[in-house]
Design goal:
Order of helices and strands: EEEEEEEEEEEEEEEEEEEEEEEEEEEEEE
Low-confidence stretches: 1-28
Distance between the termini: 11 Å
Structural class: mainly beta
Strand order of the largest sheet: 2-1-30-29
Number of helices: 0
Shape: globular
Length: 319
């Protein structure tokens, strides 16, 4: 699955200037949260089963949604968690997404569903989709729906009854929108659309996989995997766009971030996850501070979502 890609073997990297740790509380808790931009952290795992295998985390309508092997758990976005399992939940949700008429979910089998009606039943949507293995979905402002697969992006305007092929690219694993600009990450870089996903332009060409992308101020920030030469991996890279994704530039990162796999914009900060833990930058990535250690088991890593100055970090098993 796409979230396993960052877990590649480490290699020696020249030490670069790095700011001292702000705070680094080691933990094995499944869900951690910070409500002050990463300065302090608290455990939000209370109410979850002792044995749980989570796959995804999302914040929709001020509620947290955690997809796991056995179903879907929800809790209000608050300091004291109140986790409840949805009675009609799907098993093995690897991604959950907002929708005007009900949430969308993609399972670990790459099946696409929408939750519909007062009863909240999950209805399959990819029956008429040529490539039925869906990775990511995003609802457009013209009431359409974009769905990515191993080799393409498709769009439907009739709730999945018919699908139109709008882009061909290898393994599109991220798709987001900001100010009516849509960007998608693929094996060959970043693609951009300004017409609700009808047409796409290749705006960042990379030799390796682009793993994640997020809005940041007047543009976006993306993470690109390093290259392999004779079994040796180069450092992962962070790219920033300040013009709504039209152009991009790489930023230098410290050795502790050479295996970075996710970057999020949280208030005035950039928050980055790597194999070394969670880091924070207040100067557009020029310097970084560690704000949370990685779990003791280095096969574990963090998936983060955010709202305002709040950060929610879910510990996932990287196998």
């Amino acid at each position: 699955m796409y979230f396993l890609l960052p877990f590649l073997s480490l290699f020696f990297h020249p030490i670069q200037p790095f700011t001292p740790n702000l705070i680094s509380p080691a933990t094995t808790n499944i869900m951690m949260a910070s409500f002050d931009g990463g300065t302090t952290w608290r455990d939000l795992s209370k109410g979850l089963p002792a044995e749980i295998t989570p796959f995804s985390l999302e914040l929709i309508d001020d509620h947290l949604y955690m997809g796991e092997r056995g179903g879907l758990y929800t809790s209000p976005n608050q300091a004291i968690p109140n986790w409840k399992k949805e009675s009609s939940s799907l098993a093995g949700i690897r991604g959950i997404y907002p929708g005007k008429n009900g949430k969308y979910a993609v399972t670990v089998q790459n099946e696409l569903f929408q939750q519909q009606g007062e009863a909240g039943f999950w209805v399959p949507l990819q029956k008429n989709l040529k490539d039925e293995r869906v990775n990511v979905v995003h609802e457009t402002s013209d009431d359409g729906l974009l769905a990515t697969s191993e080799s393409a992006i498709y769009k439907t305007s009739d709730h999945g009854l018919s699908w139109k092929h709008v882009l061909t690219a290898r393994y599109i694993n991220s798709l987001i929108e900001s100010n009516h600009v849509y960007v998608a990450t693929a094996l060959d870089g970043v693609w951009r659309s300004t017409d609700e996903g009808e047409n796409w332009t290749h705006v960042l060409t990379t030799p390796t996989f682009t793993t994640s992308i997020t809005p940041f101020q007047n543009g976006f920030v993306a993470v690109v995997l390093g290259q392999e030469f004779g079994g040796i991996l180069t450092s992962n890279e962070i790219y920033i766009s300040g013009d709504q994704g039209a152009s991009w530039k790489s930023i230098e990162i410290p050795a502790e971030l050479n295996r970075v796999y996710q970057v999020k914009s949280v208030g005035k900060f950039l928050i980055a996850c790597s194999e070394e833990g969670i880091f924070r930058s207040a100067d557009h990535g020029k310097t970084w501070q560690k704000i949370h250690d990685t779990p003791d088991n280095r096969n574990n890593f963090y998936k983060i979502v955010s709202s305002g100055s709040s950060i929610f970090a879910l510990r996932l098993d990287g196998c």
